[in-house]
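Hi C.,

You asked whether I'd gotten around to modeling the 200-residue construct. I have! Everything is below, sequence then structure, no commentary in between.
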Amino acid sequence: MEGRIDPRVIQAMSRVPRECFVPEELRAVAYEDRPLPIGCGQTISAPHMVAIMCEILDLREGMTVLEVGTGQGYHAAVMAELVGPSGHVYTIERIPELAEQARKNLQKVGAANITVVLGDGSRGLAEHAPYDRISVAASAPEIPPPLKEQLKPGGKLVIPVGSALQELMLVVRVNGYHEERRMGVIFVPLLGEHGFKARD
């Protein structure tokens, strides 16, 4: 899959300094092709997974995108490059510390077309719906109905589904919803009303 990545995706990733989105002690390994811990039990996805998810979504200039699971903001920054100044990325994060750090990181790299929202991403973000594309960076037990409902007709949603065994799913809203399994993956769990339940 990586060998067929759209050059636009590679160019967008090259314009976003990944080292600005990892903890200082991990900056020397920021470009290694593996997930890295970013605190609060969360990770930044491996570069190849960011590329694959962007490729599957086929992001274009002017699109409105919802991201679930901001982390430190890297994937949102890459998607913002792809949708350009006429597009917008809304990204929702449930952990206050990460949402605040993401805002700082995105400001530092000059990403102007991104809005970071604190909340339960499993419910989507109805106030800015519908979306051309939705990207989910955590694995859900099943595809959350609110995310499907917040897609525009013709819109695409990419989401990992499963617990121990996870699959990356593509959902396209055409004459209902068409679901397609793309590949096996490993992501942190999506917690929330339509995700996994948090353990106390």
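If it helps when you're writing up: Residues 67 and 135 are 5 Å apart (CA to CA).

Thanks,
B.
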